[in-house]
Specification:
CATH superfamily of the largest domain: P-loop containing nucleotide triphosphate hydrolases
Radius of gyration: 28 Å
Distance between the termini: 72 Å
Number of strands: 18
CATH architecture of the largest domain: 3-Layer(aba) Sandwich
Shape: elongated
Mean pLDDT: 90
Strand content: 15-25%
Low-confidence stretches: 504-511
Structural class: alpha/beta
Largest sheet: 5 strands, parallel
Helix content: 25-40%
Strand order of the largest sheet: 11-14-17-10-18
CATH class of the largest domain: Alpha Beta
CATH topology of the largest domain: Rossmann fold
Number of helices: 21
Amino acid sequence: MFKKVNSAAYSGLDSVGIEVEVNTTKKGLPGFNIVGLTSKAVDESEERVKTAISNSGIEFPRRKITINLAPADIPKEGSFYDLPIAVGILASVMNFEIPEKSLFFGELSLDGSLRHTKGALPLALFAKNNGFGNIFLPEDSANEAAVMEDLNVYPIKDLDQITAYLLGKKEIDSAVYRREKEEKESPEFDMEEILGQEQAKRAAEIAAAGGHNFFMMGAPGSGKTMIARAISGILPPLTESESLEVTEIYSISGNTGPGSGLIRKRPFRAPHHSISKVGLIGGGSKPMPGEVTLAHRGVLFLDEFNEFPRSALESMRQPLEDGQLTISRSKQRVKYPSEFMLVASSNPCPCGYMNHSEKECRCTPRQIFNYQKKISGPILDRIDLHVSVSAVDIEKLKKERRKEKGESSDKIRKRVEKAREIQEKRYMKEKIRTNAEMKNRHIKAYCNLPEKTEEILSKAASSFNLSARGYFKMIKVSRTIADLDGEDVIRPKHVAEALQYRAKTTEDKAF
């Protein structure tokens, strides 16, 4: 007997329909064979399905069983074909009909229950966009898929439950999306805890408001890491569309837990500098997202920037410029989004005390040159805001402690949210969300530059030998500063402030 069950596979964030064709016959010796360009995980479905059916109190058929996963030329990965294979076998033995326009996926345990399976959201999105009215999946993965409206999401606990449903003996209520209770999580650091460093905190606010890349250089203990980690507390929450994007990425990478729903908080990724190129960018035999994709719509914090492998940093050029990256392998080619905000920090030299007001640098000129050479010019040119963070004197810290606290993260976040709202309205008809994402055509359309402002920009470009990219980045930062001031026109004061975030490190000869 022949049965067909619909399932799907994802490649990157794109999904493709997979037909699980099941043929059972009494002719020939009993056997179980899976074909269709399968991986080891799919081949192992044979033992999981056999044992799960037997442990569910159903006698496994002593027949020749052939499973074909079509189209045969698409690589099949993962364990989520267990459920459609089991349903196809049971349907052919018990002779029940499989509901039309229904998609099945999920991993089976040996006792017949279904495990939480990654990829629920992208496959639910595929089901909705391709006319499938129903999706059957593990109970622990149902809430993630239930966010899709106009789609019946059936949470399945075990094989007994779905068999009874398909035989018409028992009903299953479709899942209703349960929005997780949002508990206000305090950031690791609040901006008011950071004493001094007003310029760096202002630069962090501008970076958060416009989604700009931000680089800090300074001596050890000057507050670089505190400022970077405090940035998560001044970022606005994800919008609905951004939540979908981020949750899709975390779903296929296995970073969403059982019963989880949409991710609402912006990602903050802080990998160690020993990370490999594949870990940072993504890849592998089956290309999976790296840190630049997991930080999509959030922050990628690279502390000790100079210590990262140069090859890994150089591979960030395309993601930083385009907001996406393409990973090509012999069998497949996938695209992942990478619209993240890079926050990096570094010491000025190996010992960390070059240009320090009190401590003497012990490094030779050659050591300093080799240390700073680890970060290439093209990478630095892709960073919008550069700040030198000076060490704060202990006596000054004592005085600062006695003063009133500085601005809190909550207060700064309100200004950032207001600036983001302005950008949201401005780019409503565009495919971008922040000033940092602007292309040249957007700058022409949305950056109102009076004659005097243009004159200052031209002089700055000449004085500091700015590249064309650096020139346009300065306009983008000026646009964000104007948004924070609530002004439509970019004025000379906005350009003057933007200029200091490119000029500072040049004056210090930090790189």
